[in-house]
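2024-03-11 09:14:02 INFO receiving multi-entity request
2024-03-11 09:14:02 INFO entity count = two
2024-03-11 09:14:03 INFO echoing inputs for audit
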Amino acid sequence: EPEVTQTPSHQVTQMGQEVILRCVPISNHLYFYWYRQILGQKVEFLVSFYNNEISEKSEIFDDQFSVERPDGSNFTLKIRSTKLEDSAMYFCASSEGRYSYNSPLHFGNGTRLTVT
Amino acid sequence: QKEVEQNSGPLSVPEGAIASLNCTYSDRGSQSFFWYRQYSGKSPELIMFIYSNGDKEDGRFTAQLNKASQYVSLLIRDSQPSDSATYLCAAREKLTFGTGTRLTIIP
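2024-03-11 09:21:47 INFO inference complete, emitting structure
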């Protein structure tokens, strides 16, 4: 079964450094998403991306975050200057459609980001 | 008001019993809902989705949607220890998840 893959599985960085989290969505999916989950808390929506543009973003997704689809397969999340509170599990997801009731989000295994 | 609300639990159910998980939502415009299961330290995995009023069954799982009352529920029959996880309710159009209900099946 096709799956969303994320790399790395664990990233440790120092405060103030830039990090790039990488994702390869399912190949025939058109919509891509990033979520984060701080330890012990809920899964929070960050951003959705379609047709090389951000289609929706949450309040969390401020100027320090950016997303990009640099080629035909990768989808990346960049955090420009990491803060301690950015420590979380980051999940990439993809879906065939946006509003289709039968188009669920498929999640990758996540990247655990630790900012020290 | 949160868009999707769940009782965070924990909910403990004896093995073999029925586990009942509930979710309410605030936006009447929400049409479809998904239930995901998340094991500790893992990513959410889809269990099932529902978009029509009434019940939808898939194996041991039954999702129920009541649009008039704005709630969604998930029933797990013949609960197994492997069902112990956090269950997340999601409003598809809003891309938002509830806080999740932690379910523990007691052998």
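2024-03-11 09:21:48 INFO post-check: The radius of gyration of chain A is 13 Å.
2024-03-11 09:21:48 INFO post-check: DSSP finds no helices and eleven strands in chain A.
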